[in-house]
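note to self — DONT lose this again. spent like an hour looking for the file last time. sequence + predicted structure for the chain T wanted, 593 res
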Amino acid sequence: MAAAAPGGLPDAQALDTLYRGAPLSALVGVVEAFFLSVLFWREVPATAIALWLAAFVAVRGLRIALGMAYRRSPAAPGARPAFWARWVVVSALAQALAWGIGSWVLLAPANLVAEVALHIGLAAVVLGSVAHLAHHLPALAAYAAGVFGPLAARDLFVAQPLHTLLALGAVLMGLYVWHAGRAQARTIAQAAAQQHERQELIAALQRENEATRLARQEAEAAHASKAQFLAAVGHDLRQPLNAMQLLAYTLQQPAPRERVEYLTATLMECAASMSALVEGLLELSRLDARSITPRPARFALQSLFDELAGTFAVQAQAKGLVFSMQPGSVHVQGDRALLARVLSNLVSNAIRYTPAGFVRLQTSVHGALVEVSVEDSGVGIDAAELPHIFDEHYQVGHPGRERGQGLGLGLATARRLCVLLGLELGVQSQPGQGSRFALRLPLAPETPAMPASLPAATPQDAWPLPPPAPAAQRVLVLEDDAGSRRALTEVLQGWGCEVTAAASLQEALQQPWPAHAQPDALVVDWHLPQGMDGFDAIAALRSAIGHAVPALLVTAEATPDLQARAAAAGLPLLPKPIAPMKLRAFLQSHAAA
């Protein structure tokens, strides 16, 4: 607790100290007054002594009553420091004057022993009060002045040499008491300040311990959640991998063509499931690592909705669902690509969990914001499951997860993207009545020169599907992984391409290329041996060939920085696992060119 400055208002603790000792102090004072009066009982009329003692006891009684009033106050005494401090000074002055007046009553100049004893007794009374009244210096000053003032005046009134010296001694004693009181007040203030610092330190340590405890609990919960998450990931990876291993073994056995086609289609479905899981996990990892930076810009919602319709309308129709849009002619401010991923996940989820009815994508303007919502008439979500739907690997109604119902990463990714974009993703749902997911975007300022709608962007992962097969081409494959190199070679040769495969740039440069048989296209891995990357390899190969051969960069590390470098270099980038249709689209587009 902070201490009051010397001479200022005492704090609650100091007031408690000043009032707590009132009964004992009063009793001691009465005893001292009685013994002093005994020294003068032969020199002073008994009536005068009796009246003084009665007045003295009355003053002490009032002091006790004041202390009791302080303790019984209905309001916290510390809340009225000025009021109670004022009464401390008044009571100290009253008690001191009781002593001062007593020095005039107990007057016997001829009895030097009694006179000296009186002065020593009063000096002892005042010195004994220093430690107590130093908590409030005005009270100490009033007490010293009330005792020594009348005493010095009395001695000067007697006007004897000894009494003159006693008067001087009273004045000096008063000054000494004041000096000692100030020193004691500073000591009290320092002790109170140290106590306050200790209390603050203890409180800070308690807060730090509590924060450490909470952090430890959060870390333990995160560890448990991570272990559970990794177990779920391991399960979901092993399932398609197990199926692929068994299917690959089965394909090695003789079988009818129809059986081979069925097994191949199932194998491709398992591969697609693994690819989707890996991509989803990588995206969550990038979001958790904050390696994705939003790039807000002004764009038209119509173009984004048209893009989503081109992707999901066919899927909805294939399930017999009515897919509708109501974008409105508005422009918003935000990262178009990231928002497209959020809405794609929400629409895909809505189609997956809607067995019949509709999926609706619409907007509504609310002041400076536009609300974008995805509604469906699907199975809905129970209130008990709503807190968990944004957790990784959680499927509504399928705690064990069914791969046919997705991987349980779509909503988790959507929520993380919304956090990254500073958007709040809300959900309303009723079991059997469908769900509604909504978020609000800031409207972009009007720009008259801006067209009413922007053309839909075509990301690299959404190249148009080509004709059934590319024209025969000579393709150089530069891939250091033997398995991937063989797989790429088989796929390209199956399309009728002439393939030259190399594990390193040196091996590729050593290939004899007649002028009439130079590669028509390059498929180059980004991460190559000996510190080489795909950009340098493509530049070296093009230099050796003599012209800018169309090149495709493939990578298992499709980070945003790498995508930006590829875009700046004018190179299409295809992430692994490679989608055959996108590889064929690249070959077909350059064959047509």
